[in-house]
Amino acid sequence: MTAYMSIDVPVRGGLLRTGVWGPDDPGAPTVLAIHGVTASHRTWGMVAGALPEFRFIAPDLRGRGRSNTLPGPYGMPVHAEDLAAVLDALKVPRAVVAGHSMGAFAALVLANLHPGLVQSLVLIDGGLPLDVPAGLSDEQVVQAVLGSAAERLGQPFASHEEYLDFWRPHPAFAGHWNPLLLDYLAYDLQPHPDGGFRAATSYAALAEDTAELHRGAALLRALEELAHPVQLLRAPRGLFNEEPGLYAPGYVQQWQQRLPSLVVTDVPDTNHYTIVMDEPGAGSVAGVLREHSRFPAGAEPGVPDGVA
Question: Is residue 248 part of a domain?
């Protein structure tokens, strides 16, 4: 079993909880992994376990997990500064940076604001602007993209079992109940002020971050000024296990035309969640991260075995 510990990193307003897997060796290859909009660092346990020789660092972003009491403002530039503080605290001069879902947007902005900290970027079903109809309000974008995943944030749950029952019908997890998912869901609960439990993510953080992705400038600037090797891993199925997934192939092709350095790889038999939280997704992601750790700055990412 890969060694694991958690630390608290000082950032603006308090402490950022950070999970660290792997050897306590500053010379080990290092991945900085950034979770999605309503998630936590426990998303990454299976990917980290497939890379036991790596130092695998994953924070709970501001407003999520055990970092959920950190104050706003939120937004990708704020997350980027928190992430830079994590690398500084752990004395990591440079890392392969992986981001899942919203974490991919934060990864791009980190690379734009702190290019020297980033060896290469692995964007996992995220990072490209959301393909949503024009004219939607911020709240409509939240509902269109996240649906019940956002609605649960204000909902009380009497017990951990009730929270599991909430998730059991979710189509993305049908056939994918595994120890990592159970650990992730248990970690996601915290005491509710009125009794029982609630999900750990702050709705204010979710709303502000989604609004910035919808109409903010930091992401577009990061894409326009992209200067690192970058690979997008696309899940063919979406948040509700639907096709064509969060990013339709034609939409991705449009972005490839705008970003010639962008390498896009489909990870078969995955949806938006299982691409990192079950097999075969977690193993495929780990293989790509291992490949990225091997090539020097300026090299183009390749496609490892097992990924179509």
Answer: yes
Asked whether residue 186 is assigned to any structural domain, the reply reads no
- Average pLDDT of the residues in 269-280: 98
Rounded to the nearest angstrom, the gap between the alpha carbon of residue 304 and the centroid of all alpha carbons in its chain is 21
Asked whether residue 182 is assigned to any structural domain, the reply reads: no
Banded pLDDT at 212 (limits 50, 70, 90): confident
What's the pTM value of the predicted model, to 2 decimals? 0.94
- Report the CATH number at residue 50: 3.40.50.1820
Query: Mean pLDDT across the stretch 124-143?
Result: 82
- For residues 63-84, average pLDDT: 98
3-state secondary structure the chain: CCCEEEEEEEECCEEEEEEEECCCCCCCCEEEEECCCCCCHHHHHHHHHCCCCCEEEEECCCCCHHHCCCCCCCCHHHHHHHHHHHHHHCCCCCEEEEEECHHHHHHHHHHHHCHHHEEEEEEECCCCCCCCCCCCCHHHHHHHHHCHHHHHHHCCECCHHHHHHHHCCCHHHCCCCCHHHHHHHHHCEEECCCCCEEECCCHHHHHHHHHHHHHCCHHHHHHHCCCCCEEEEECCCCCCCCCCCCCCHHHHHHHHHHCCCEEEEECCCCCCCHHHHCCCHHHHHHHHHHHHCCCCCCCCCCCCCCCC
- pLDDT, one tens digit per residue, over 84-133 is 999 999 999 999 999 999 999 999 999 999 999 999 999 999 999 988 77
Using pLDDT thresholds of 50, 70 and 90, give the confidence band for residue 297.
Answer: low
Residue 128 belongs to what domain range? 4-132+201-292
Asked, for residue 196, whether it belongs to a domain, the answer is no
User: What is the count of structural domains for the chain?
Assistant: 1
